[in-house]
Amino acid sequence: MGPVRSELMWQAVVDAVEIAGSGDPLDVLDLGGGTGGDAVRLAQLGHRVTVVDPSPDALASLHRRGVEAGPSGAVRGVQGDASDLLDHVGPASFDLVVCHGVLEHVDDPGVALSTVGTVLRPGGHVSVVVAGRNAAVAARALAGDFVTAQTLLGRTVDTWDVRTMGARRFVPSELEELLTTRGFTPVEANGLRVFADLVPSAIVDTEPGARDALYALERLVRSCPEFSGLSAGLQSIARLDSVEAPPNPGGNSATL
Ligand SMILES: C[S@@+](CC[C@H](N)C(=O)[O-])C[C@H]1O[C@@H](n2cnc3c(N)ncnc32)[C@H](O)[C@@H]1O
Question: Which residues does UniProt call coiled coil (predicted)?
């Protein structure tokens, strides 16, 4: 097993695939998929994956990674972002949209999720992972930075301006409301990295068996609300129940 943090984040993708499919290959969009670590692993499992990301550097790394890993035909890299998604991919063309670590950065997370809804097939799923605000409050308080902890505690997603305040952070109820008001039904909520970001790496890396035990503990507590509300990452896997009429698609894409 690799680092616990990365393994937990990959397992979140696997969990979403298991909920979204019945074992057959899926059409997966990895929105903000970055350098394609998850995309390539998904392709190796047999899924057809499209990565849409605004960063040309990330897409260049994805290309290299895809070529080295071999499944070049199964991963498509497209330069774009949540706001112009329908210029690059067709409406109702995916079974699963993975949107991990992205809603923190977009101008309007609600608009981004509405757009995600237009590219999903009816009954398709989205897996959203966002940074947890409670975890940041706790981390600041434990570091003795009580003023910043209070500032973070007083913020909400509605009032968070990413241009002046940096990456947005969420609490579980905000993520659930964003999804339900955009026609999604949350089917599973998980806390990712309840402890993994807090434990000194010296313990995890040197104590025999600590890495496996921490991983197992994280997998146990991820669905306990008492713990998951304090996790560094909040995951919601949600099903699309209603579809808005999509605008016409266009296309600028590069196939790996
Ligand atoms: C923290 S990284 C997450 C990468 C990957 N999804 C993961 O979970 O490891 C955020 C990614 O979102 C991309 N991004 C930033 N703004 C975006 C937007 N408006 N639409 C789509 N992707 C965006 C960045 O280029 C970056 O690759």
Answer: none
